[in-house]
Amino acid sequence: MSENETATGGRPGRGRRPATEVRAAVLTAAGRILLDEGLQALTFDRVAREAGASRTTLHKWWPSPGALAAEAYFARSRPVLDFPDTGDLRADLIAQLGAFVRWLKEEGAERPVSQLVGAAQLDPGLARAFAEEYGRPRRELARARLRTAQRAGLLREDADLDIVVDQLWGALYHRMLVLKAPFDASVVPRLVDHALHGAAPR
Amino acid sequence: MSENETATGGRPGRGRRPATEVRAAVLTAAGRILLDEGLQALTFDRVAREAGASRTTLHKWWPSPGALAAEAYFARSRPVLDFPDTGDLRADLIAQLGAFVRWLKEEGAERPVSQLVGAAQLDPGLARAFAEEYGRPRRELARARLRTAQRAGLLREDADLDIVVDQLWGALYHRMLVLKAPFDASVVPRLVDHALHGAAPR
């Protein structure tokens, strides 16, 4: 098989697609399977079939179905991760975290992300893929918005932005993964106020 | 087999042990296996053998090896979870979280707790057991210390103590499970200061 045939995913008779298009189709199919049916359903065979790509291509691009799942999850959740920047940090954080909670609780993302983080604890390769393809890019998006706020004087100069990320999104993961405590978007304003102003008397 | 033989774990010729003693021996053996070798090594067979108990007893007391592992993890980590109460909330939180980080990073608890939380995402029974046997009792211990501080006026009356727990311990779980970002006890004072005073200008 030539390089080109591999990259285009081998759909004979339907013309060669550029690699970026095949890649996008694979991520879309993987994201759909992950969200609708969960991590167990996501195999290279199934994704290749639904994306009209070859298994060889998938094996070449991703070390494991878990790694593909992690990247597909990031691609699929990408629109939910965008930050408004209205200049009102509290409102923007509430909007962003609220969208994240609805994505988890109403749009079906809680199961796949729990499964991905769960499986990652038993599979170091998946842990690396999930952190690299989702966790850290996602943290970087949040950090960028917080940095803008810090430059505008809305966060203290010595605030540790990584800790702020841990205390906003990490707090939600804690309830979801460790405590298995129910929550909805109504917790978000309190969570943001705690992250901004703390629990001690002012 | 009589009720009593079952409860004493059936070690013929060595005398009958009271059920509480058998239970303690089982939890000790399970905790040792979990910490030394990880979740995969913890089977009813292995624990029964090492604790001198019968498999029947174990099956009767725990629905699954995972549920036993969750309770054993709580029993084993119990001493690390205790709170000093010196009246200085910041110092007490730093001492407690510092002990938790050392327990994870230096005493080998990171692997088993990650495995337990991980496996729980793929096994609802284990998720329930882990939340009931570890996550929530652990949160209750933290909440009790925070409540004392709140009554003493060291936390605001309207502070949400569950959120404070999420923003202290949950932040560490976030780094450990989701970001796979390295950390050590040096992060703890900053984490506590953020939870107490927030990231916004005072």
UniProtKB/TrEMBL annotation, chains A, B:
Which Gene3D superfamilies does its entry note? Homeodomain-like, Tetracycline Repressor, domain 2
For this protein, the DNA-binding region equals 43-62
What's this protein's name? Answer: TetR/AcrR family transcriptional regulator C-terminal ligand-binding domain-containing protein
Domain named HTH tetR-type: residues: 20-80
* Pfam annotation, one family: TetR_N
Signal peptide start-end: none
Provide the alphabetized UniProt keywords.
DNA-binding, Transcription, Transcription regulation
